[in-house]
Each structure stands twice: as structure tokens, then as C-alpha cells.
Amino acid sequence: MPIPATWLERHRQRHDWALQAFDRFVHELAPEISDQVRRSDQVTVVVYGATQVGKTTLILDLLGLASSTRDEVARVLRGGQAVGKSATAMPLRYGRAPDDNWYIGDDRPLDEAQATQALANIRRKVEQGGRQNTDLTDILIPGRLFPTESGTALDVDVKLIDLPGLDARNRNEQQLVEQLARRYVTVADLVLLVTQASSLGFLRPENLQIEELAHWASQPVRFRVVVTSCFSLSSVRKHLLNTSFDVQQLRQTMISEIETLELKIPPRFADNLYVLELGDSARDLANTDLEYYAQIAPVISEFRQQLIADITDASGPFSRLFAAFQLDGVVQGQMSVFRARYDERKAELDKELQVFEKQLGKHYPTLSDGPWLEKLEYHQTSLDEQYTTQKQLGAVLSKLVHTECRALFESLFEGSSIKVDAETVSALQEALEEEKDRLKELCQGWTEILNELFERVAMDNLKDPLSECVDRLPPITFDDRDFHAIAYVLDDYSTDSYFWSSKFKNDRMVLDMAFRKSQQRHASLAHQNFIDGFRTQAARIEKTVSALKAQRRSVKEKVQHLQDHHDALSTLQSELDANLARMTSSLKIAEHFERRVNEAFVKTLQKVKTGITKGPTAMDKFLAVLNTHLLINEAEKLYAGNPRRD
Question: Where would you tag: which of 285, 409, 552, 554 has the fewest CB atoms within 10 A of its CB?
């Protein structure tokens, strides 16, 4: 950027080197941090707090409004509401009118009644949800309501913004308050956190409602705490009446009270705490206990003057840069928030996991304690295998039951033709006994042949289950009724030899018929047992498959539940690691902010000093000398405000 030719322009740009270094610095930070240091072009001061803690009264008091005229101001600002109700329903910026009229948001002069109605209309729109924009409403108070001379008031040109209370009852108003807070509080150069002495819990991070405000105690450049209605507390009054006190003593007393809420107040923030008694509360003290009020009035006045001077100083051109010097504390605070969130959420997940694992222990007593996810996954795999096998087995059994396989069993019991070595009765009797023995043996072990068959043709995973099904088939009892007639005939012979071959052939034919009939009988019994047994087992397996299906679904849900927990823990850890890594990067950047400002200053100074020797005219050289002194003077102001150099 070229050096301006005129002194006016040089003077106007005397801060640019620092502000430009600040802007470059902000863009390199993590979003969570940059949002806390990025500011609007105009220096702003925001008053933030709950409803009815004295925010509006504080602003009007700081602006120097005459106490004798505050009733009219209060009536107008309430917009027709009863005493004790919040006066602020939208973001307001107060100022002093150039004449004796009210001005509400435009250039149209209003009297008291018109101004009251205008604010009532605005409030009605907010409560009915008709107004959702977050633009400021300027209120210019008639000049006649201010004292003729007031050297103890805040300059009305300071952009002092009054926001609605945090605990608005109207839902539409609550939504607007949140939008307003995020628009104005997060970018304000100075934030006055206002609370009553009886409600110090407001200062706890969880009650401030905006995450960016959680680290107020670590940013003394940007935050002030104003405690109202302190002196009117009976406990405070009793304490102060019995002892001498000053501003610093009262600060330390109030800080001790705040720290009982597990809020740590760093020593460098101590001077940022102001204790005031305002409005009706102060007037009541003055009217009811003049002696006590006379004792505390000087302290209240000193607090007030310090606050006015503090706000004025904080509205200087370097105020936003001072916050950057404290950014390491902000980053550390943000890291603490991330860790606290992680610890809180992890504790919740761990507790939920313990409860769930305890339920698993009761539901699956056969599974030993240990890594439940691993054990349930193994159990699920086992159930899947059982389900698949049982389903296939049931299908095979059902198919076999409906398959025509009578011929198979007939062939199983069919024996070879009778072999008789001689035409004797004993030879036929011996053949009969051999066939009976053969059939008895088949009745006892006919299922072994089925096992051998399934062993050859069944799928590997079905061989053992099919063998178990075969083993459960009901046994066959040998029945020799088909042999009774021929056995009786043979037993009736008195001699062993046949005299007639035709008689031998006839007995042998009858015996063959008995063999075939008995074979068919037992083949039919085996076939029926096969069908009945497999049908029964198929029905049982169908129920088993249904039960396994339900078990698989239940285990799958529990595995998913466990997996979700583990994934949530893993995600939580990853988020923490990522957040801390991002904050660590911002912390390194923050630690080098002063070096960057120094480099920007040196670079600008060298550029200006070059004009002392190389200026084209004597005037340019003279301006370069003045500009050099101007830059050095501004740099001294900047570094004097660096809280790290306290």
C-alpha cells in the first residue's frame, strides 16, 4: 500500500498495520476461535444478562440520565407494560436526541405517549412472531431529560447495545433473543455480563446459553462483570455496617462468592468486576436508610466512574487486538470444553454400556464375562451356522418324506434266492432260519444303510445332522408270522428225506413265498418308520428354525447395539482428537500473534522511515519524520494494553 501524501490520511491510517495483521491472523484460526475474536467494523459494547437484573437501568445510568427524569424514560421504555416487566423486547441502541423529542427507529419526532405506543407496537410484533429480524432499534432520548452538564457520563456516541433478557417467557421472544445474542454478543468488543448479587449462578458457562461466552474469565480485555442489587442484600448490609470497606475489598468479597460456584476468577480479571446499586433499589436505600446509603454511595460512585472509564478505554482502536493477546487462554478454555464434553459423553456411554452388559450377563449366563461384543459376534456366527444347517436339514427331510422311495426299502430287505444243497426237510428248515436271522439283523441295523447312503451323497454340513436324524428313527420289531405255516409243515415231517421231488419243490416254493412276503412286510415297516420319523423331525426342525431365527434377530440387535456404542466411543475419541489437534494448531498461531504484529510494525515503520531520506520534497521528508513518531507512539499504546505485559 503506497504511503499517503497528506498528513490527514497518514493519521487516519496510523492503526492499519496492526489491524491488517490482526485480520490475517484471524483467518488462520479454527472457526471456533476465529468467531470469538472476529469483530464488526464498529467498536461495540453489549449488555448481556437475564430479565429484570437492571441492564437497561445500567445503560441509562452510564449515559448520565438525570435521576429526576427517569420515571418518564421508564414509562416509555416499558411500552405500556406494568412495572416490574422487562422493558427490552428487541436490541436497542440508546442516544441523546438533538432536541426535546423522542425518536424511535426513525427521524419522526414523538412525544411521550407516541413513543410509548411505538415501543408497545414493536413489542407486540415480537411476541406474536411478526418481527424476527435482528436489526438494532435506535432510541434517542429527549435532551431535556439529561442534566445540563454532566462530566461523569459515558459518551453517547459509544455503541452501547441493550439486548432482551435471556429468560423471556414468550416463545417468539425467546427465539429472537437467541438470534440477537449470537449476532451481537459474539462479535462485541466489550461484553458487560450483568447479574444480580442473588443470582451469581448466571455466570456459570451452562447458564450463559452461548458457548463463546463460556471463557469470559480468561478474557479480561473483552468481558466485564457487573453485579447489581448487592448492597441491598441484608447479609451484605449487615456485613458492611460492621466494617470499613473500599472498592478492592468489595471486589474480593464478591469474587469469593462467585468462586463458591466452582468458577475460577484469575487475578488479572479481578479489576473487571463492578458492584453497583441502581434505579429503584438505590432510591429505596437512600429513602429507608440514609446513614447506610451515605456509607456506600462513595463506593458505588467509584465503581461507576471506573466502569465508565473502562468502557471508554475498551472502545479504543486497539481494543480488539488486546483480545488476540489473550487468545491462548481462550484456546485453552475451548480445549477444556472439548475435554469436558468428551468426559461427560463418555461417562454417559460407559454407564449405558455397563447397564447393557449387565443385562447381557443375565440373558446369556452361559457366555462368560469378557469382551461382550466379541463373544456375541461369535455366538451370532454359531447361530447363523445352526440356522443354515437346520433350515437345509428340514428341507432335505421334508423332501425325503414326500419322495416315493418304497422300492429302496424293498431292495434293502430283499434277499438272494434260496440255496438248498439237498432235497431234505432239514435243508429247508436251515434256509428258513437263516432268512429269519437275516431279517432280524436287518430290523436291528437297517438305519446303518441309510447312514452309509447319506455319508456318500449328503453335503458335508448335513452329514452329521442327518446321521443324528437317522439314529432317532424308531426301531423295527421282527415279526415271523409269515413263516408260521411253512414252519409247521416242515416240523410235521417224520423223516428228513423227500420221497417225491414234487413235494420238495412245492415246500420250497411255499418257503420262497414266505420269504418274499416277510421281506415286503419289514420293508414296508421300515419305509413307514422312515416317513413317520422324518416327518416328526421335520416338524420339530421347523420350530427350531423359527426359534433360531428369533435368536439370530435378537443377537443381531444386541450386537448392533454394542457396535453402535463402540462406534460412538470411537467417534467421540476421534472428534476429541480432531478438535484438540485443531485447537493445538490455533494455539501455536496464537502464540505467535505478537511476533506477527511486531513484524507488521517493523515493516510499516521501515517503509515510512525510508521517506525521511528518500522523500521527493522537504515536506515529504518532514511528514515521514512525523509519521515515524506517530507510528511509534501508536505501537507503544498497543503494547501498553497487552495484558501479557502486565
Answer: 554
Distance set, CA 160 to CA 49, 137, 176, 640 (Å) = 14, 12, 19, 25
Counting every residue written for the chain, the total comes to 646
**DSSP annotation of 424:** B
556 phi, psi to nearest 5 deg? -60, -40
What pairing do the DSSP bridges indicate for beta strands 137-141 and 103-104?
antiparallel
Q: What is the DSSP string of 127-166?
A: HTT-------EEEEEPGGGS-S--TTS--TTSEEEEPPPT
Is the distance from CB of 319 to CB of 205 less than 8 angstroms? no
Tally DSSP H helices, then E strands, for the chain. 22, 8
Grid cell digits, residue 62? 452510564
* Strand-pair partners of 305: none
CB atoms within 10 A of CB 316: 16
> Which of 94, 182, 88, 93 lies closest to 127 in space, CA to CA?
88
Cα–Cα distances (Å) from 637 to 237, 316, 319, 629, 633, in that order, read 41, 10, 11, 12, 6
| Position 604 pLDDT exceeds 70 | yes
Contact 608, 11 (CB under 8 A): no
The strand pair at 159-162 and 103-104 is best described as unpaired
Alpha-carbon distance of 604 to 631, in angstroms, equals 8
Residue 529's identity, in one-letter code, is N
Helices assigned H by DSSP within 472-592: 484-492, 501-591
Orientation angle between helical segments 279-288 and 290-314, nearest 10 degrees: 150
Q: Which residues contact 12 (CB under 8 A, 6 or more apart)?
A: none
Query: Measured over all CA atoms, what is the biggest interatomic distance in the chain, rounded to whole angstroms?
Result: 166
In angstroms, the CA 330 to CA 34 distance is 10
- The per-residue b/e assignment along 627-636, b for 16 or more CB within 10 angstroms, e otherwise, is bbebbeebbe
CA distances from 358 to 352, 364, 365, 566, 568 (A): 10, 10, 10, 16, 19
In the chain, % of residues over pLDDT 90: 14
Q: Is 188 helix (H, G, I), strand (E, B) or coil?
A: coil
Q: pLDDT digits over 545-557, tens only?
A: 999 999 999 999 9
Return the H-helix or E-strand segment holding 191.
strand 190-196
Mean pLDDT for the stretch of residues 512-527? 92
Contacts of 105 (CB under 8 A, 6+ apart): 118, 122, 137, 138, 139
State yes or no: pLDDT of 212 exceeds 80. Answer: no
Which three cell numbers, joined as nine digits, stand for 334? 475451548
CA distance 432 to 425: 11
pLDDT one-digit tens code per residue, 112-128: 888 888 888 877 776 66
Q: Taking the alpha carbons of 438, 441, 447, 450 in that order, is the dihedral positive or negative?
A: negative
Beta pairing, strands 137-141 & 273-275: unpaired
Is the pLDDT score of 492 beyond 70? yes
Mean pLDDT on 149-172: 65
Distances (CA, A) of 518 to 311, 522, 530: 118, 6, 18
R_g (Cα) of the chain, nearest Å: 50
Alpha helices in 273-326 (DSSP H): 279-288, 290-314, 319-325
**CA 318/CA 639 separation, integer angstroms:** 10
